Amino acid sequence: MNRKWIPMVLVAMLLNRYLSYAQEGAQQVYQGIVGKTLAESKEWWPDPVKAPQGAPNVVWILLDDVGFGASSAFGGLVETPVFDSLANNGIRYTDFHDAGICAPTRAALLTGRNHHFVHEGGFSHRSNAAGFPGWDGRIPAKDGTIAEILRENGYNTFAVGKFGLTPDEEATDAGPFDHWPSGKGFEHFFGFLESATDQYKPNLVEDHTHIKPDGRHLSEQITDKAIAYIGRQKKASPDKPFFLYYAPGATHTPHQVDTAWSNRYKGKFKEGWDVYREKTLANQIKLGVVPADAKLADRNPNVRAWKTLNADEKRLYERFMEVYAGYLTYTDYEVGRLVNYLKSINQLDNTLFLVIIGDNGATKEGGFHGAINKNPIRNYEGDFFAENLANIDLIGTPKGHHTSYPIGWSQALNTPFKYWKNDANAEGATHTPLIVFYPNKIKEKGGIRKQYGHVIDLLPTTLDFVGLKAPQEIRSVKQDTVQGVSLYYSIADKEAPSRRHTQYYSIFGSRAIYHDGWKAGIFYHPTQIDFLRDQDKALTNTYDNDQWELYNLSQDFNERIDLAKKHPAKLEELKKLFDEEAKKNNIYPIIGWDDIYEGKVHQNFKE
């Protein structure tokens, strides 16, 4: 090589190295000297990227389809001793919200931005996505996740369980992997990419590869993997913090769990779903997670009174609930394994836990009679009750591929609210428990916080705990402003006024807007339950039939008294505000379940 080219080659090499530092997130300006000769030059190496001094490990736990009134941690009759312990040694947030259905909640949670804003109006599945900015199911790089931010700031990042945000057409071993967990900041992933999977035969992925499941329950496998990731990291770098996103398939359908867990509840639900609601409300009042004068919302008209059921109906429906309860208690046990492991390696006190007990309210997917191997929302023919009764022993087993309870239990598990998953107009879909636990920082035990919050608030909350600010760029991509409002202010001051003033909700036609204690929502647009009652009628509805309701949540937290006729000016004010939020967040066009079932969307999809 000609000697006169050596300095130019050296400069090029150094420039490339500098650019790689910037790409890795350090973005430190080169401080060395590049001369014509080595003697005239001064080497420089960037400081290694480290998390802020004393930064905690961070664990986000997100359960699926649970319901506000399910876990004993929030007054329910299903035993969750681990969640109880975390809450009793930390803080319960009682006015916390999700997006109303799984993928939108997860997209909003991970990015700190509203779900339509990050293109997750519905799902990333082909049949539910549409070619509009708020609906294509592909989170943009400009809306970076909490994992990307923490990874860029000295954390190792792991995810196990359900991801649910990868477009179907990209979910093969050939990728592309931009919308896989690895493309969203997670260094390791073990779980499934879809919205649901069989718990014994999951469509399992590790990092970038589909793998064969080993036959054990998925919750056991993901817990083992989470512990392995943490153990390996702490062995290699004891002082480096980690971020773990622990998102089990539980308790989404199919409800599957070993009979050793479900049989623990034999006979415990004989009094039925009406009594369940009454007992749960009493527990909730005692715990302080609902107002002391709270009353139950009316029983949904689609739910029969328990006392009117015959003996076979009661026997069948009890078994569905026994299985569900065993499933939730088992999930709590698996979380306990993780907690105990962190304690055993002296990491529990320095770990921030944010535990969201449900990405939306309890599900209505089981229809009127429950489901075992058929989804009644999509299969309208046949006698579901007779089929289920004949197959009662399959409920919850590996052969119960779609096990889900009937809607009577759905409303019970959402106590004290009305309606259920997907009904974004109602608190029953969007009001979810949040537990914050961090022994090194939070000394309060069993605290209650009533500030209004939403899943988009947990990204900035976490950054405040860690001591970081949301970055302007991630890997040279300019970032959108984070829309969440940190809840950190409320940790030290339980009386602090809420800092979240406005929040929209919109899922497949049902929609609402919250603003400073008031809430307006669309009560009726064809929902999945309408398809159970009269498919043809449901498909003939238009948005002209939509009926707005109005509630003062400050005085009526579970939406018992509609004030739309009494305060028409307030209703119009909120409807206008919804329209403003819709335009700002890419909610339009509104796509309803009728549009999905009629196949109106995704007609022009190209591979």
Automatic annotation (TrEMBL):
Task: Tell me where the signal peptide lies.
Answer: 1-22
- Membrane-spanning segments: none
What positions does the domain Sulfatase N-terminal occupy? 56-467
Could you tell me the keywords of this UniProt record? Calcium, Hydrolase, Metal-binding, Signal
Concerning InterPro entries, the annotation shows: Alkaline_phosphatase_core_sf, Sulfatase, Sulfatase_CS, Sulfatase_N
- List, alphabetically, the Pfam families matched: Sulfatase
Q: What protein family is recorded? A: Belongs to the sulfatase family.
PANTHER family the record matches: ARYLSULFATASE FAMILY MEMBER, BLL2667 PROTEIN
Q: What is the designated name of this protein? A: Sulfatase N-terminal domain-containing protein
Which species?
Olivibacter ginsenosidimutans
